[in-house]
Amino acid sequence: MGNKYSGLQIGIHWLVFLLVIVAYCAMEFRGLFPRSYRPVINMVHVSCGMSILALMVARLVVRLKFPAPPIEPKPKPMMTGLAHLGHLIIYLLFIALPVIGLMMMYNRGNPWFAFGMVMPHAAQANADAVAMLKSWHIVLANLGYLVIALHAAAALMHHYMWKDNTLLRMMPRKRG
């Protein structure tokens, strides 16, 4: 086993990172656009969410097949435990968020779009379910800011303070 994640794992990681940025920006900046753009902005958000869900599941499957490369120098057991907890939270969050979002869109009972296509919807709207799912989606999305910040801070601390290879294991390979 090498000292880096596989190219597939690295690619999925950074693609999810970009999709998360686009999904969050679509919602945060939608007010800057005329209301007539909302359907397109919502479609971008939903399409990113569906892509994140598929990639996170794929990443989990790949992660089960290919173990993580070792951290050198080896961290203390408490740090390893915290890293595992952090990754578990990331996987749960970025699988749960899109699932909840999709359930919310379905239960609205009207046509909605992803990837430019009309998606299935309930024959009848369920306003109570939509309200509950929307509140959870918003809470988890806001929690996502904290989780992302902690994940990035931990990677930077590993690199600059503890001077181990944690960050380097997930960096794209150099060409040539």
TrEMBL record:
TM ranges: 12-33, 39-62, 82-106, 143-162
Family membership: Belongs to the cytochrome b561 family.
SUPFAM superfamilies: Transmembrane di-heme cytochromes (SSF81342)
Record key words, sorted: Cell membrane, Electron transport, Heme, Iron, Membrane, Metal-binding, Transmembrane, Transmembrane helix, Transport
Cofactor(s) this protein requires: heme b
The keyword Transmembrane helix is assigned to this record: yes
Residue runs in coiled coils: none
Membrane topology: Multi-pass membrane protein
Subcellular location per the Swiss-Prot or TrEMBL entry: Cell membrane
Protein name as annotated: Cytochrome b561
Pfam family, one: Ni_hydr_CYTB
Source organism: Citrobacter sedlakii
InterPro entries: Cyt_b561_bac/Ni-Hgenase, Cytochrome_b561_oxidase, Di-haem_cyt_TM
Matching NCBIfam families: PRK11513.1 (NF008566)
UniProt domain Cytochrome b561 bacterial/Ni-hydrogenase: residue ranges: 5-172
